[in-house]
Design brief:
Layout (H helix, E strand, L loop, with lengths): L8 H6 L8 H24 L4 H14 L4 H45 L7 H24 L2 H20 L1 H9 L4 H32 L4 H52 L5 H61 L1
Length: 335
C-alpha cells in the first residue's frame, strides 16, 4: 500500500471525506508509526545533549588544576566519540524526516490528481497551484511535526537542568534573558501568520485567472496589482521574521555577557571553578539553537496550519465538484 494510504482512502477522498480538519490530524492519521520512530531517534539525540558540556568542564578543570596529560587525552577521546554518535543519530533523524516529508508530498499530490473531473479553466489553475506548490510545505512539515518539538524541548530541558545542577545562580541569570522572548515572539508570529494567509489567497486568485482571462486587459492589470500585493506581503514577512531573529540574538548575547561577568566574579572570589563558567556559557550557546529551532517550528506550524486548511477546503471542493459532475452525467449515460 502506498505511503499515507489505507483501504478505501481514494474513494473517501473523491467523496470529500478523507482530509482531517487540522494538519496534526493528518499527521497522526497517516504517519503515526513513522512519527513514533522519529520520536525515538529524537530522544536518543537529546539524552546526549549535556554530555559534551560536562566533558568540556572536566577538561578545562584538568588543565587549570595541572592534571595529567593522560586524563585530558581520555576525556578528549570520549568527547570525540560522544560527538560522533550524536552527529550520526542526527543524520539518521534528518534523513528519516526527509523521507517522511517527501512521501507525504507525493501522497497529497496523488490525492488531488485522483479526482478526475472536467474542471473549468479557473478550477484547473487552483488544482495546479495545490499540486505543485501547496502540498510541498505541508509534506515538509509532516517530517518535523512531532520529532522537532520533542527534540528541541528535550535538549532545552537537559541543558537547563545540567546548568542548574552546576551553578543555580548563574543558570538563572542566563536563562532569564530567554523569558522576554515568550512575549514578543508570539506577537510577531501572529502578524506573520496573517500575511502568510493573505499571500496564499492572492496566489490562489492569480492561479485561477491565468488561464481563464489570458487575453483580458483589465484582468492583466488586476494580476499586476495582485503581484504587487504579494511583494508587499512577502516584504512584511521578511521584516517581521528578521526583526524577531534580531531580538532573539540580542537576548542571547546579553545572557552570555551576564554569565561571563558574574561567573568571572565568582571565580575570582574562589566560589566556583573556571570550568563551571565555561560550561554555563557553553550551555547558553547550546540553548540558543534549540530555542531558535523551536520558535521556527512554531512559526512553521502556524503557517502550515493555514495552508493545510486551505488545501483541505479546496480538495473537498474539487471532490464535491467531481461528485456533482458524475451525478449530472448519469442520466445521459443511462439514455
Amino acid at each position: 500500500m502506498p505511503f499515507g494510504r489505507r483501504p478505501g482512502h481514494e474513494a473517501e477522498f473523491r467523496e470529500g471525506r478523507a482530509m482531517p480538519r487540522t494538519v496534526m490530524g493528518y499527521v497522526l492519521r497517516y504517519t503515526a508509526m513513522h512519527q513514533a520512530g522519529l520520536a525515538l531517534l529524537s530522544v536518543s539525540v537529546f539524552l546526549l545533549a549535556a554530555v559534551p558540556l560536562e566533558l568540556q568542564r572536566r577538561i578545562v578543570n584538568e588543565l587549570t588544576n595541572k592534571g595529567t596529560a593522560a586524563a585530558v587525552f581520555w576525556l578528549a577521546a570520549v568527547y570525540a566519540c560522544v560527538a560522533l554518535v550524536e552527529q550520526m543519530l542526527k543524520t539518521a533523524l534528518n534523513i528519516y524526516r526527509g523521507w517522511v516529508a517527501e512521501s507525504t508530498v507525493r501522497s497529497l499530490r496523488s490525492d488531488v490528481l485522483d479526482v478526475d473531473v472536467n474542471h473549468t479553466q479557473a478550477e484547473v489553475g487552483v488544482e495546479i497551484a495545490m499540486i505543485l506548490e501547496e502540498a510541498e510545505p505541508i509534506g515538509g512539515f509532516t517530517g518535523i511535526s512531532v520529532s522537532e518539538p520533542l527534540l528541541q524541548t528535550g535538549i532545552l530541558a537537559s541543558v537547563i537542568g545540567y546548568m542548574f545542577y552546576l551553578q543555580p545562580y548563574l543558570a538563572l541569570l542566563g536563562v532569564a534573558f530567554f523569558l522576554p522572548q515568550m512575549v514578543f515572539v508570539p506577537m510577531l508570529q501572529m502578524a506573520i501568520n496573517r500575511r502568510a494567509q493573505a499571500r496564499i489567497l492572492v496566489k490562489r486568485a492569480i492561479s485561477g485567472e491565468l488561464v481563464d482571462d489570458a487575453h483580458d486587459g483589465d484582468a492583466a492589470d488586476s494580476k499586476k496589482i495582485a503581484i504587487g500585493r504579494i511583494f508587499n506581503l512577502n516584504m512584511g514577512i521578511y521584516k517581521l521574521k528578521y526583526s524577531m531573529n534580531l531580538l532573539m540574538n540580542l537576548m542571547y548575547y546579553l545572557g552570555v555577557a551576564t554569565a561571563l561577568c558574574v561567573g568571572g566574579w565568582f571565580v575570582l572570589e574562589g566560589r566556583i571553578e573556571i570550568g563551571t563558567v565555561v560550561a554555563i556559557v557553553g550551555g547558553l550557546g547550546k540553548l540558543n539553537d534549540p530555542w531558535g529551532d523551536l520558535v521556527n517550528w512554531a512559526r512553521e506550524f502556524s503557517v502550515v496550519s493555514v495552508k493545510y486548511r486551505l488545501f483541505a477546503e479546496a480538495a473537498i471542493w474539487l471532490a464535491k465538484a467531481n461528485s456533482r459532475m458524475n451525478e449530472h452525467d448519469l442520466p445521459a449515460v443511462r439514455a
